[in-house]
Amino acid sequence: xxxxxxxxxxxxQKNISIRQLEEKLGFANATLRRWDKNKPSVxxxxxxxxxxxxxxxxxxxxxxIKEPQFSTELLEAIDNAEGYSGQPIDDHxxxxxxxxxxxxxxxxxxx
Length: 111
Hints:
The chain is mainly alpha-helical. It is 56% helix and 0% strand.
């Protein structure tokens, strides 16, 4: 599967059109469609990878998704979470929260 096809698949999973994705990322109309013929810049590939919370290597076909994929909104909520004292939680605790959520969603999907 080529780069554009992977992006189409990821967009479909998030129920967003390619055009909506381009708008959210600030790309010109049909930018992503042209990626099957023209090589995109690294910063544009990185922007797409960050939006979908996947690696650039995944988009380029060099690796498969190994970790559970959370929505951008959920990741932002975890990043902005506060502890009992009102202080931001540290990165270690954020990873624990992600692990708990991954286990929860994995169990829920098996039912």
